[in-house]
Amino acid sequence: MVRETRLSPDDFIYPMFVVEGRSVRRAIPSMPGIFNLSVDNAVEEARQALSLGVPAVLLFGIPPKKDAKGSGAYDKDGVVQRAISAIKADSPQLQVIADICLCEYTDHGHCGVVEGQEVQNDATLPLLAQAAVSCARAGADIIAPSDMMDGRVAAIRKALDEARFESLPILSYAAKYASGFYGPFRDAAQSTPQFGDRRGYQMDPANVREALKEVATDVAEGADMVMVKPALAYLDVICKVKEAVDVPVAAYNVSGEYSMVKAAAQNDWLDYSRVMLEVLTAIKRAGADLVLTYHALDAAKLL
Description:
TIM Barrel, 12 strands, alpha/beta, two-stranded antiparallel ribbon, about 300 residues, 10 helices
């Protein structure tokens, strides 16, 4: 009766990794229980999420070929575009969120266009805008730019409006930190940078005022929702962002946070169900309105 924070399946967004092929359900070794899925299996997984009360999925695409400019991200027949269309046709009530970034699609693994060994912020913006419009045309319900290029929310909003998607909302990865917790994701998405790292455009884990600046900038550029990523080591950031903005706040319970709970449970070092729900409750207690988590299906079954 007096519980202050309540957790529900409709708090969750379930991330999925889509690959080429048919009948593909390839286990990701560093993320027990998570798979690379072909479009047909992604449709089934999305249908299961909806049946458990999870209202949304977030799609990452892994193309068969990568190039310097990440052309698979904005290919109208790309794997993620086809997955969006197929999932919406099968489960129209499910909200399909398109992650917009180049890192899964580039042969160098960085989130933008590279010259020499420098990521070119402004040259990347038109490609991100193309990717957003491509996913919108495929049927995406929400566009979620994760690249952390300056000005990308404004560029995407302008491109969506010009393509007559004025009502399509943007969920911005506004405060995305240069974190060590992303390791398993890079295994899943095959997106480890071939040189350097992403500290030049992702945030310093030591900074919180910078997060508030990034969030305010994205809201001013047209973001309808903002995200903090990762979640567990950044609960204070979630709290401060929630206090600072009047738009919905999401938090991404990222791959490394998921995997360390799974690994400890597999070694009988902790109670998986109890700790999973404790973690998710803590993220919501900190102020997250939405929680992106690979635990979504497991948690929804328990709840």
